[in-house]
């Protein structure tokens, strides 16, 4: 299993960091094809927008290319599918979710030297445009539309309740380790729903390279081990969680699980 450091992730573009993550989870990922496809599209964008006079027109042209001509769009029908979180599949299907579409779009804004940066907003990834002569704008990478602060506050209310307020820190740029960590959690959740436990286990092991002692991640790994019929290993992870988080409501239920999982002694051959 590949271990990623914060420094290594920050030295890559977001999409390159995600691609390395994807390859660590799914060994069939074609990193060469993805890089070639990104390069092909980037050159097309550079050629198409070379004559635009300013950043605003170039960004407008890029959004038109990305969402109209190239046909990228948010996957409304299968939003939680793991296919939407793997860069290779997003490029082939031209469908994704905010974090994957945003990372791909960000790759092109960087090539065009546009003043765009990623923001790990509490509800999803958004893109922040830092104009020289006016307040920043915000793009929803799911559909390429600009977002008002009223809309962003509405998203927060939907997540946190009616008293939620839009805070300055909600709109600050995020670093790659933070975004890749969130991306990893999205992939793991999708794989668990699809019962792809081998790849979900790789996600959990990767997450533990970022936070080796995270009891909640270790609990999740225990659940995956249980689905893979590795009962004693699952029990060890559950016991760690119980010891670290004895007051968590899940602790009592997991104590019962441990008893069941360890009720029969393992047989060694």
Automatic annotation (TrEMBL):
The Protein SirB1 N-terminal domain, residue ranges: 33-184
InterPro entries from the UniProt entry: SirB1_N, TPR-like_helical_dom_sf
Family indicated by similarity: Belongs to the UPF0162 family.
Pfam entry (one): Transglut_core2
Biological classification of the source: Bacteria, Pseudomonadati, Pseudomonadota, Gammaproteobacteria, Vibrionales
SUPFAM superfamilies: TPR-like (SSF48452)
Name of the protein: Protein SirB1 N-terminal domain-containing protein
